[in-house]
Amino acid sequence: MEMTVSASDNINGTLILPLYEGTEAIPEDSERGLPQSVKSQINRVLADGDFKAKKKSTMSLFGGEEGKVILAGLGKSEEVTIHDFRKAGAAVLAGMKKVHGSEFTVRFPTAGVAQKGAFGEGMMLRDYSYDNYKMKDEEDEDVEKKIRLMCSEKENKELSALISKCQGITKGVHLSRDLGNCPPNDMYPEVFADMAWEWAKDYDNVDITIINYDQAVKAGMGGLVAVGMGSERKPCMVIFEMNKGVKGKCPVLVGKGITFDTGGISLKPGANMDEMKYDMGGSATVFGTMEALAQTGYKGKVVGITCMAENMPASNAQRPGDVIKGLSGKTIEILNTDAEGRLVLSDGLWKAGEYNPGFIIDFATLTGACVVALGHEATGLWSNDDDFRTKIHEAGNDVGELAWPMPLLPAFEKEMTDSKIADTRNLGAGRWGGANTAAAFLKQFVPNWNYDKEGEQITWAHMDIAGTYWGSKTNTMVKNGATGIHVRTMHHLITNFKWD
Ligand code: BES
Ligand code: ZN
Ligand code: ZN
Predict the structure, then answer these.
(1) Coil, strand or helix: which one is 24?
(2) How distant, in Å, are the alpha carbons of 223, 458, 460, 492 from that of 349?
(3) Which of the listed residues 332, 338, 370, 485 should we mutate to test ligand 1's pocket, taking the one with most ligand atoms within 8 A of CB?
(4) Local structure of 19: helix, strand or coil
(5) Gyration radius of the chain over CA positions
(6) Rounded to whole angstroms, what are the CA distances from 440 to 99, 412, 430?
(7) DSSP track, 217-269
(8) Tens of pLDDT along 301-319?
C-alpha cells in the first residue's frame, strides 16, 4: 500500500467517506467533484437510514467509473474515540474488493489530524495477508493500493509526519506477524537468528549477537539448553542492540521464542497442537519492535533478547524430575517439560542485567491459564513496580492494545520456590492461578540493579500474550493468524518514556 496525504480536492479512484452516525445527507465539504447521480444516491441511503454509520460498518455504492464510493461508519460523533477511527479504517480495508480498483481518496468529516492519522493507520495495519505458501495465478497478483488522505493545507505537514511514522511502525507489526505465521518446519531457532542477522544489514545502528548452542552450554544457559536440547534444531539466543553507543540506561525487551511447543516429554494432546507454532510470539514482538523503532529513526539505546528453542520429546530431551541450573546460578526442579517458556526466559531475564537496563519487559505466550483468565481480549500484565505497570497499561490503552494488571503475590512466589530438591520448581503446587505462578517463577530470575546481591530488583514487567498473539476475533486490525500485538504499545512506551 502507498499512502499519501494531500490538500488537493481531486478525487482519485474510489472515494472513501467516513461518516458520523445520524448523518442524513452528504456533508457539504465532502461532495465536491462527485457526479450528481452519486450525490443523490448517497443522500438517499443516508436519508432512508439504509446506512446508519454505526461503528465499523461500511457500504459500497457504484455509480459508474467516476462514482465509486465506500461509506464508513464512525459511530456517534459525541462518543467517537481515536480507536473508532482506527477501526473504521481497518473495516474499510477489510471490505475492499477488486471492483473498487486500486486508487482511493479519503475525505474526512470534521476531525483532527490524530483522528485522520488513526484512520490511515487502521487501513495500513489491516492491509496484510500471509500467502507465501499459496500458489498464485497471474491475475491474482495484488496490485499496490494507492490511498490518498485529504486534509487542509494547514494539516498537511503534521498529518504527513504522522502517516510516515505509522508506516514505519506498521512494518514492525507486519514483521511480527510474518514471523509468527511462518510454519514451524521453516521457522526454527537458526532461521530466526539468520533473519535477524540479514535484517540488521539494512541498519548501521543495530548490532546482532547470536549465542549458538555450544556457546550457550559453555555460558551456563541451563534453561535454554534444557528446553532445546531434545530437538535436532538446536536453541540459541539472539541479541539485538540498537544505538549501543548511546550512554545510560535503556529498555531491555526479552522474548519467549519457542518455534514449536510439543510439550516435550510432558507431551501436549493432539488437538490444535499446530497452534504451538505461535509459541515464538514473544520473540516476534521483540523483533517487530526493533523494526518499528529502526524504521522510525529512534535515536535512543534499546536491547532485545530473544530466547529461541524448539521443545521436542526425544531420547535426549529433558525429563520431569530433572534438576537444572541456569545463568542465575539458581537450580530449577523440572516437574513438567511443557512449562518450558519460563525456563528459556529465566536465562534471558538474567542476561538482561548485563545491558544496563532502565527496565526489563518480557513477552511470552506463557500460559493457557492466562487465556482462561482474560480470554483473547487482553494481555496479562505483571510487574514488580506498580507505577511502571500502570505506564504499560496506559501505553496499551493509548494505542488500543489492552494489557490488564494481574497480581504478583508473595504466596505465588512461595509456591514456586517450595521445591524439596531445588531452589525453584517450574510448576505450581496445584492447578489454580497458573498464569500468576508462572509470573512469580519469572520474578526469581530478574536480577538486582548491577547484580548487587543486597540490592533492589530491576524494574520489570511480564506480559503474557498467550491469548492475544493469535486467535482474537475482536482484534479487527488483523484478518486471522498472528496479530503482531504490542509492537505498537512498545513503540509508544519507549519513544515517549521519561526517565527519572
Ligand atoms: N505455550 C504454552 C502456553 C499456551 C497454551 C499458550 C495454550 C497459548 C495457548 C506453554 O508452554 C504451556 O504449555 N504452558 C502450560 C503450563 C503448565 C504445564 C504449567 C499450560 O499453560 O498448560
Ligand atoms: Zn509448553
Ligand atoms: Zn510454550
Answers:
(1) coil
(2) 11, 10, 9, 22
(3) 338
(4) strand
(5) 24
(6) 54, 6, 14
(7) HHHT-HHHHHHHTTSSS--EEEEEEESTTS-S-EEEEEEEEEEEE--TTSPPP
(8) 999 999 999 999 999 999 9
Other CB atoms within a 10 A radius of the CB of residue 264 amount to 26
Centroid of ligand 1 to alpha carbon of 438 (angstroms) = 10
Q: Which residues contact 85 (CB under 8 A, 6 or more apart)?
A: 18, 74, 111, 115, 116, 118, 119, 122
Distance 258 CA to ligand 3 centre (A): 6
What pLDDT shows up at residue 115? 98
Whether the full predicted model's pTM is greater than 0.90, yes or no, is yes
Determine whether the shortest distance from the Cβ of 273 to ligand 1 is under 6 A: no
Question: What are the Cα distances from residue 229, in Å, to 255, 274, 282?
Answer: 19, 21, 20
What average pLDDT does the segment 355-370 reach? 98
Residue 38 carries which side chain, given as an amino acid letter? Answer: V
Catalytic-role residue among 68, 87, 342, 351? 342
Task: Give the model's confidence band at 140: pLDDT under 50 very low, under 70 low, under 90 confident, else very high.
Answer: low
| Band (67; pLDDT cuts 50, 70, 90) | confident
Is 319 designated active site? no
- Read off the C-alpha cell for 269: 494432546
